Amino acid sequence: MKATVHVMLKTGVLDPQGEAVRHALGALGFDGVQGVRQGKVIELDLADGTSEADVTAMCEKLLANTVIESYRVDMT
Amino acid sequence: MKAAVVVFPGSNCDRDLAVAFRAAGADVEMVWHKDTDLPSGVDIIGVPGGFSFGDYLRCGAIAANSPICRTVKAHADRGGYVLGICNGFQVLTETGMLPGALLRNADLKYICKTIGLKVETSQSIYTEGYNAGDVVDIPIAHHDGNYFADDATIERLKGEDRIAFTYTNNPNGSLGDIAGILSDNRRVLGMMPHPERAADSGHGGTDGQALFRAVASQLTTA
Asked: How large is the ipTM?
């Protein structure tokens, strides 16, 4: 089984990389882009029986820094 | 006085930090990230700059979960002293020993230069060799030094006189120009600038010496 963890900077935390991407898209002529937020996707290969609660614990302990980041877990 | 300096894979200021402690009169022992015990009689632990574990995942995140960091945290919980510089500051925020986090510099650039640093408080063993309001020249060298914390945390740091240093000309977007902060018991200091790179006349500046001399003086007489 697999889990996919999406980690994003929280709303209100400045994302300078996202801003740089937005500027670059504008420079390419994509005028309609009003905002870009850049995060990361972490794919986990898990032993059967690993629970979503286990993955949430992994996020809290290591995968995300909840001072600045939020996360979402998708179990598949 | 005895100092221990932590070495992670990717640390690159560990020996500089040891030299600065020794020049101030300290005995120094290096401790490896897999170690779980400190040498006996350690007064202060230095968590050095560098790129521990290649800055993978987030700066300091993997180092913060290494065996030695549990020991560092236990030392601090017992009232021990801890000095984290640059990547060491990032590690201390990742462990939760200091509040907030260090984000990517606002202009996305790695910045390596000497900057003006204002001493905000002399009320700590680290800063008592300076006067509050002094401006000293100390190098910075980082890509992720943009200090962030929620508004309540920033206000608490200000209200409790726990902001040790601010930038005179904010290079990285840090909230409140914050360059270094103290723990609530004032015994843990995290700072992005490198005082150990301004601790010898050969460095081109010696404004960092006062920090190490004050620490050595306080912990030797204690």
From this structure: 0.88
